[in-house]
Design goal:
alpha+beta, 7-stranded mixed β-sheet
Length: 564
């Protein structure tokens, strides 16, 4: 039990298939009711795909677990309908500070430029996020949540997967066209199918302590190397909601996990840290304590016929950099629209191969950065420790050394620049900026009608054709006709005009006004610039002028239907 949170208990209902003896047939079953499984269920529901979600538990995660949710994850959660709740409850922050012994040597700002809707990070205990996602999913008639339903066997076939599910009232069978395993790092589905993960387990241990206390520490990330209160080790401090602070203490590989978790050993560490910060005596209570080792591993492939793996079931990284849940939500964002098109027969099954290609690339990028962070934080030789400490000693006064300090490169969205789904730029178009094919979209302030709004609120969930103009009245008749055809296609491409001034547009075309020119600048746009946008808010293609034939070709490429 926690002093600041009461765990909900989700209702178990006897599955009707136990009495009938008949198999339940569903298009998609998701196993795992954590943030990633729930996120995928909501993603598919938004697109009209019915989902059965099974979880062997009946509550949210024990302990705060995941803490930091990055800007990109928050933008995804906006589309799932819980972004406002997460940001309202959580602690927003952009600044991180790194200390060597008792001196600050480095700091960073995750959002150094203005005009973004969401902050760089929000800290919120994972159980709150799960509670919000469950509440949202429970309102959706297309999502069926079954708690205390444990999958005990899986059989694959060319047409789907058959699951045997165990409950307190007996067993029943589920026949699914597609099975998505979102069942965590120890994935029972992966084990049942005899599939492996490969990678590295790090020989070190860390103590996590969630501490309830009244403290006026700023909403920033603080990381210490070799502090006086915990010599020769590292410490991380994060502020969470409900006056809870997350503190991580490096312990070393030889530490006894059970001994280190005892209050008589945890409390003195925290007292020493608090005293060193400002000399004040503070009362605090231990909310949750755990000791962990960490690993950087992934499956060779995330899709195995009709069985797909997402989140920690597919890949795991160390917690430095907040890459776990953030990466898993991006998995769901990537997979949902592709699975929808395949289910509808609007794309070949090989489109799902691009899920593995793109998200394995992202996983490798996360693993590389996480491994580098871990090696810097926990050097394993005297020489590497001396090198690290030399960098930290120089970082306070020298920019070149600050660039080498690595206290955890924080989660950023993946740029799928080498994806086969992209249509490469025409060199003659001379584009600049970040919004190249494969890039996750940048947000920007806009006007929707007369109301202030944000660009990302108007994209995602379907393909979009975004056309920049000065005056919407200048839209040519042939362009309007081509937009209408694209919008009514088998894979609809909804038109969105971004104009520098207000005006009237034909029915079926959405209009946003970029009065301040922020969107125009971030997308290196000029009148006539067109972007094809994927349902997961990544750029698929861009051109300096509207060309219906090129848009058709880019759409075919983005859905694996291009002619060969």
């Amino acid at each position: 039990m926690l002093s600041t949170y009461t765990y909900p208990r989700f209702e178990y209902r006897t599955p009707p298939q136990i009495a009938s003896g008949q198999a339940l047939k569903v298009p998609v079953v998701v196993v795992g009711g954590g943030p990633v499984g729930l996120g995928l269920a909501l993603d598919l529901d938004r697109q009209g795909v019915p989902v059965l979600l099974l979880d062997e538990d009946d509550t949210v995660s024990i302990g705060s677990r995941g803490v930091c949710y990055a800007k990109r994850a928050l933008e995804i959660l906006d589309r799932y309908g819980v972004g406002d709740a997460v940001c309202a409850k959580g602690v927003s922050w952009n600044v991180g500070r790194t200390f060597f012994r008792d001196k600050e040597v480095y700091n960073f700002n995750l959002v150094p430029e203005p005009d973004h809707h969401r902050p760089g990070m929000v800290n919120l205990q994972q159980y709150y996020l799960e509670e919000y996602l469950v509440a949202r999913a429970a309102t959706r008639p297309g999502i069926e949540l079954r708690w205390k339903n444990k999958v005990v066997s899986v059989t694959r076939s060319d047409s789907g997967a058959t699951l045997t599910v165990e409950t307190a009232d007996g067993m029943y069978t589920v026949e699914a066209d597609w099975l998505v395993a979102a069942d965590g790092a120890r994935s029972p589905i992966r084990r049942l199918l005899g599939l492996e993960v490969e990678g590295k387990i790090f020989m070190d241990r860390f103590l996590i302590a969630d501490v309830v206390m009244k403290a006026d520490f700023p909403a920033e990330r603080w990381f210490w190397f070799d502090p006086p209160f915990h010599p020769n080790q590292s410490v991380l401090l994060h502020k969470q909601t409900d006056s809870v602070f997350r503190i991580d203490f490096q312990l070393g590989w030889d530490a006894d996990p059970e001994e280190e978790k005892k209050p008589e050993n945890v409390v003195p560490r925290i007292k020493a840290m608090l005293s060193a910060l400002d000399g004040k005596e503070r009362e605090f209570d231990l909310e949750w304590v755990s000791v962990y080792t960490f690993q950087c591993r992934r499956m060779a492939s995330f899709n195995h016929g009709r069985v797909l793996f997402i989140g920690d079931a597919a890949h795991q990284v160390s917690p430095f950099g907040a890459r776990g849940a953030n990466s898993g939500l991006q998995d769901a964002d990537n997979l949902g629209w592709k699975l929808k098109l395949v289910l509808d027969g609007q794309a070949p099954a090989r489109l799902l191969d691009s899920y593995t290609v793109e998200r394995a690339f992202a996983a490798d990028e996360n693993i590389l950065n996480s491994t580098r962070s871990t090696d810097f934080i926990t050097p394993k030789s005297r020489a590497s420790r001396s090198f690290r400490n030399a960098i930290l000693g120089l970082a306070r006064d020298h920019a070149f050394a600050r660039a080498l300090v690595n206290s955890g490169r924080l989660s950023v969205p993946a740029f799928y620049v080498d994806s086969a789904l992209n249509t490469p730029d025409d060199p003659a178009d001379g584009f600049g900026g970040r919004m190249l094919p494969g890039a996750p979209m940048d947000d920007a302030p806009v006007l929707a009608g007369d109301a202030p709004d944000w660009l990302l609120h108007h994209v995602g969930g379907s393909f979009r054709l975004m056309l920049f103009v000065d005056d919407p009245a200048t839209l040519a008749a042939d362009v309007i006709a081509a937009m209408a055809r694209l919008a009514s296609g088998a894979v609809p491409v909804r038109p969105l005009v971004v104009a520098r001034q207000a005006g009237a547009v034909p029915q079926g075309i959405d209009l946003l006004v970029d009065a301040r020119g922020v969107a125009t600048q971030r997308y290196d746009a000029r009148p006539g610039t067109a972007y094809l946008l994927r349902p997961d808010q990544h750029v698929a293609a861009r051109w300096r002028r509207f060309d219906a034939a090129r848009i058709d070709s880019a759409l075919a490429r983005a859905t694996c239907k291009e002619k060969t």
